[in-house]
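Give me the 3D structure for endoplasmic reticulum-golgi intermediate compartment protein.
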Amino acid sequence: MRVKQAIQSLDAFPRAEEHLLLKTQSGAFVSVIGLVIMATLFYHELAYYLTTYTVHQMSVDLKRGEILPIHVNITFPSLPCDVSVDAIDMSGKHEVDLDTNIWKLRLNSQGHITGTEYLSDLVEKEHDAHNHDHDKDHKDSHEEQHAHGFDAAAETMIKKVKQALANGEGCRVYGVLDVQRVAGNFHISVHGLNIFVAQMIFDGAKHVNVSHIIHDLSFGPKYPGIHNPLDGTARILHETSGTFKYYIKIVPTEYRYISKEVLPTNQFSVTEYFSPMTDFVRTWPAVYFLYDLSPITVAIKEERRSFIHFITRLCAILGGTFALTGMLDRWMYRFLEALTKPNPRSGLL
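Predicted structure for endoplasmic reticulum-golgi intermediate compartment protein (349 residues):
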């Protein structure tokens, strides 16, 4: 008997008799508020537990001999689709017929698509690592042809491009460039035209408007939370021209999903520079994207929060809310009791 009483004395939750419990309207009001608060906090805590978070780790990039995909989607509202896309890497190799998937969409003056052209003649050219401009060589290769006049094809091209300029046509270049995983650049310009043909069409480099809108520029598939800093960039020129250069630092990245699936991709940072055309500049306007790869790779891993941590936070939230509503109920009961209790001094008067 004494043992049973000793055990009962350890009860931290003593209960009063049912007929001694007093239920009030204020208590019911506080209870409803407490239940609403606990349900709301429980929902948010459950949603917080079910969402994943990411952990970033850095290490030395050991990848070699892989292909770097460059996803391009750029609109040139003031240039016809006779622009060329050239890719050059810093290895000094001369490779022809790169695996490309580039499309050029003809746009009218309202920006609507009027035609499509598939670009399959992308060429990676051998070059000097410190000189990206090959206009001089381009000029030398066509001096002999110029001396003998333009052929019928050149005349036809001149008329076609001039007509497109008069109609206010533009061009959207989109697709994927597959290049060597080394530093290099790709640029979009009128370098693909005969230098004298370009002179006849535009009447000088100052009239080549390389205004552009970058809808998408990325170096691999996208993962949750990625931010490509050039997406949505618009550079519109009015009564001037020049060369845009975007200096891009690519950071190799691996995104590891909670399902253990690994997504190899790249993120990047960028700085830009604009060089306006002057009378002393002999190059033609272009838009350059000069990229280099970081030796550091970033691993982003999705992780889920601990279930023990979830239970601990849940107990703290529910227990704290229950204790707070209990204190509020006692204060309200005493306050209402003080208001309704008759004043003993008023009975003596």
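The first strand starts at residue 52 and ends at 60. Let me know if you want a second pass.
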